[in-house]
């Protein structure tokens, strides 16, 4: 595709539900990042993939958060047993090479009620 | 996790004014410094990627400088226009973002 695509665009989940957020990076982009953005804050790093390898997951806030990129393209961020504090915009970004400029998706706005 | 600080948090300028803001980052283990422009309801858009100490980059009326030894970068906007209104984010390796500077240009 022409850009990074994220789905769904909006997700409302009841507390305790599991959610899965999808990111389709630009074809051929090696690096893929997930960020969480709370209202009024900058994006906060969650995790980083280089191809299918998850090289850094230090930003994942708890073991309820899990990300994968099994074939080195599409990535899924899964949040189990969602809590209200998980409400945020989840941004995915990819770059052709590590260290290169990021191309962002439009984000998924998650609201946990 | 590195701390990236941006200042000011927000800024209001009159159309035609020039302005600048700052990104501070730890200078140890520096890899690259990125600037992004983020308009409301859109996704962040890359402005500059800088790697070398003393780098200066320019795109139209916007330019940026980099000092890796002291750990700061400046973003300059010359002759601000209303369409420059956005949040400007900087990020340092491993792509830790600052909270951004929200610029509002008043016509």
Structural summary, described in words:
The complex is a heterodimer of chains A (113) and B (107). In chain A, strands 2, 4, 5, 6, 9, 10 and 11 form a seven-stranded mixed beta sheet that branches. In chain A, strands 1-3-8-7 form a four-stranded antiparallel beta sheet, with no helix packed on it. Chain A is 0% helix and 49% strand. Chain A has strands at residues 5-7, 10-13, 19-24, 31-37, 44-50, 53-56, 65-68, 75-79, 88-95, 103-104, 108-112. Chain A contains no helices and eleven strands. Chain B has 107 residues and is mainly beta. In chain B, a hairpin with a 3-residue loop joins strand 9 (86-92) and strand 10 (96-97). Chain B is globular. The mean pLDDT of chain B is 90. The chains are: A mainly beta (113), B mainly beta (107). The interface between A and B is medium-sized, with 23 and 23 residues.
Short description:
The complex is a heterodimer of chains A (113) and B (107). By secondary structure, chain A is mainly β.
């Amino acid at each position: 595709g022409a850009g990074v695509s994220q789905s769904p665009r909006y997700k409302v989940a009841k507390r305790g539900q599991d959610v899965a957020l999808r990111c389709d990076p630009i074809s051929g982009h090696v690096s893929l990042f997930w960020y969480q953005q709370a209202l009024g804050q900058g994006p906060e790093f969650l995790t980083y993939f280089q191809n299918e390898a998850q090289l850094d997951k230090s930003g994942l806030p708890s073991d309820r958060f899990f990300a994968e990129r099994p074939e080195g393209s599409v990535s899924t961020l899964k949040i189990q047993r969602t809590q209200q504090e998980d409400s945020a915009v989840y941004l995915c970004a990819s770059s052709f090479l590590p260290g290169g400029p990021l191309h962002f998706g439009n984000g998924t706005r998650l609201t946990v009620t | 996790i590195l701390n990236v600080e941006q200042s000011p948090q927000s800024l209001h300028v009159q159309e035609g004014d020039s302005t600048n803001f700052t990104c501070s980052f730890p200078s140890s283990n520096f890899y690259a410094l990125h600037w992004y422009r983020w308009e409301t309801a859109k996704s962040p858009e890359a402005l500059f990627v800088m790697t070398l100490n003393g780098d200066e980059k320019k795109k139209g009326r916007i330019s940026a400088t980099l000092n890796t030894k002291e750990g700061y970068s400046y973003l300059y906007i010359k002759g601000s226009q209303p369409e420059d209104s956005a949040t400007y984010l900087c990020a340092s390796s491993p792509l830790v973002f600052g909270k951004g500077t929200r610029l509002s240009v008043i016509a």
